[in-house]
């Protein structure tokens, strides 16, 4: 991790400022298992406390750790009783059935490329590219992932790179008239495209995952003075 942080600080002055304000990188990782992906599906579109409560109820019925057999022994009514929607229940059943058939094999993921992992996981209903990216980053511990569809990363890049560059560009001409600047109408935020993100993130390689962790944290702390 130290090598990654040193690389990011050396290769990108803006990222260096973020790192210095955020502090040490404290990424937390899970295990690349069926259980972890089931948890990711349950947590989709739920706030933290609700997700934890529902997942605890779910594992009380399905077993902990969650297995394909544990899910398949349950009915749709069981899953609805613990607070899971009909849609999420169908995702969990689909994942369990694929794993039981051998179509979904977590033992092979470590030897796959990032693109192969994404293709393998997204065969499951309800598992999109974003979920696959999170799995790559926080369970398989892949160091160079850039989740271009993540809202938090897009917002952080907008704030720390695009918005900052625009202010620097326009600041010289407006600094003499602060009242006029204050009255300027607020522009609608335009989040960066995947192409813009890839271009900015080029300097972070091969540690884009660690850079993204810092970008997420930058939304929680004042990183630019």
Describe the structure.
The protein has 225 residues and is mainly alpha-helical. The chain folds into two domains: 2-26 and 148-218, Endonuclease Iii, domain 2 (Orthogonal Bundle); 34-138, Hypothetical protein, domain 2 (Endonuclease III, domain 1), CATH 1.10.340.30. It has helices at residues 2-11, 13-22, 34-43, 48-62, 68-72, 76-81, 86-101, 114-121, 129-138, 151-174, 178-182, 194-201, 208-218. It is elongated. It starts with a helix and ends in a 7-residue tail after the last helix. The model has no long low-confidence stretch (mean pLDDT 90).
Strand content: under 5%
Structural class: mainly alpha
Shape type: elongated
**CATH-scheme architecture of the largest domain:** Orthogonal Bundle
Question: Could you state the CATH homologous superfamily of the largest domain?
Answer: Hypothetical protein, domain 2
What is the tally of beta strands?
0
Q: Quaternary state, please?
A: single chain
Helix content: 55-70%
Describe the largest sheet.
none
Q: Calculate Rg over CA atoms.
A: 21 Å
- The SSE string, one letter per element, is HHHHHHHHHHHHH
Question: Count of DSSP helices?
Answer: 13
CATH class of the largest domain: Mainly Alpha
- Give the low-pLDDT segments: none
How confident overall, as mean pLDDT?
90
The total number of structural domains is 2
- CATH topology of the largest domain, which one? Endonuclease III, domain 1
